[in-house]
Write a structure and sequence with these properties.
Layout: H1 4-17, H2 78-94, H3 102-107, H4 128-142, H5 146-159, H6 173-183, H7 219-231, H8 237-254, H9 259-274, H10 279-284, H11 286-289, H12 307-320, H13 324-332, H14 338-353, H15 360-365, H16 369-385
Helix pairs in contact: 2-13, 2-14, 4-5, 4-16, 5-6, 7-8, 8-9, 8-14, 12-13, 12-14, 13-14
Bound molecules: magnesium ion.
Magnesium ion is lined by residues 127-129, 170, 339-340.
């Protein structure tokens, strides 16, 4: 796809040359007094109804962007909101460049929010990763039953519920097939695919909310819950291990542990639980369980949608970065499954660094942010009562 910034700028320059427009009337955004700078022509002023033909993509990568309406998060649990919104922002930043190659991201790294791209979606659009996580958050905010989660999945797939634009625009193959079974009335925890080929990252990408529930259940109850919630769509042991690992690590970060301690507690949890019953899976996860993944160089990290690759890539960027921003941008600039890896790395980084380390303009740009905030509030109330 041709770089759209260049197209915009060339059209803009031509319009200025022809005297069609004057550069000084092109404000960057409502609150910004800076005018056209460095060829940037992306302005919120043009986003709603006043968009002249020569302005194609308002506010694209504009660091000056300030949204008109702000949602307040003062006093919110830094790690809980940081985790969930950090996950959503990672997803949102990755959506426009999903499936792009590592080479493309090296020559044109994502540094700020973008729009359009792979799915031609506007700014602030999040995808199935956040939608399916919201299905879980919403269900836990009610009764946490598998049937309630399944009903939410069906509403997502069929009616675009839990989506930013009331329309589903992406879904994984395994997830789709499993939801079809739910619609036929099969018991939800029997719906997930169980073959070795069904180990995409489709359950890992929606499991984060369980990290915040973990404290309220016994180890055995929680393990069973994580396993069954993965198995709604992804029932193979490899996907279940990835979910268990991720939930344990995120939970440890949520309790205030450092990166190393959280990582080691997840390694211990998985090794103690699965090494005798699933030695071959321990081999598959050997780079994660030996911590060798952290010593890899970038070309040894595969940022694909295979669950093991996605987990490895997320851990790698999480340890490499020194801020929320660095972690998510590094995740996305690996290319490949950018939204999911951005999301799962962003979830860990959001818990660890906290909500206040996530750039405000990114949070405030999330589509349907008020809806998400309400869902988190209901979820938070419920998990504190369980
Ligand atoms: Mg996605």
């Amino acid at each position: 796809m041709r770089e759209r910034t260049e197209i915009d700028i060339s059209i803009m320059k031509k319009a200025i040359q022809q005297g069609v427009i004057k550069p000084k009337i092109c404000r960057q955004c409502w609150t910004c007094e800076k005018y056209l700078e460095e060829g940037k022509v992306y302005c919120e002023e043009y986003a709603y109804g006043k968009l002249p033909e020569y302005i194609m993509f308002p506010k694209k990568e504009c660091e000056k962007y300030e949204p008109l309406k702000k949602i307040d998060f003062v006093g919110c649990d830094e790690k809980l909101y940081g985790g969930i919104l950090g996950f959503c922002v990672g997803d949102m930043l990755g959506v426009p460049v999903e499936f792009s190659s590592r080479e493309e991201r090296c020559t044109d790294p994502v540094k700020e929010m973008r729009a359009y791209g792979t799915y031609s979606q506007p700014f602030g659009t999040w995808s199935d990763d956040t939608s399916l996580s919201l299905c879980l958050i919403d269900a836990i905010g009610k009764d946490g039953d598998y049937k309630t989660i399944a009903d939410n999945f069906i509403a997502y797939m069929d009616n675009g519920k839990f989506t930013p634009g009331d329309e589903m625009f992406d879904i994984g193959r395994t997830t789709q097939l499993s939801i079809e079974k739910m619609k036929l009335g099969v018991s939800p925890i029997e719906c997930g695919m169980k073959s070795e080929n069904d180990n995409g990252n489709g359950s890992l990408m929606r499991i984060l909310p369980l990290a915040f529930v973990k404290e309220k259940k016994s180890v055995e109850q929680m393990s069973e819950y994580v396993k069954n919630i993965s198995a709604l769509t992804h029932g193979h042991i490899r996907s279940i291990i990835a979910c268990e690992f991720y939930v344990e690590m995120a939970y440890s970060l949520y309790k205030g542990n450092g990166k190393e301690d959280a990582y080691r507690s997840a390694i211990k949890y998985i090794t103690d639980k699965y090494s005798s019953s699933y030695p071959e899976e321990m081999q598959i996860y050997s780079r994660v369980l030996s911590e060798k993944v952290l010593e890899c160089n970038a070309n040894e990290i595969r940022s694909t949608g295979y669950v093991v690759d996605s987990l490895e890539a997320s851990l790698w960027v999480f340890f490499k970065g020194n801020s929320y921003r660095e972690v998510v941008l590094d995740a996305i600039n690996l290319g490949g499954d950018t939204d999911t890896i951005g999301a799962i790395a962003g979830g860990l980084a959001g818990i660890y660094y906290g909500l206040s380390d996530i750039p405000t303009r990114w949070i405030q740009s999330i589509r349907k942010l008020d809806f998400i905030k309400e869902e988190i509030q209901n979820f938070e109330k419920k998990i504190k009562l369980i």
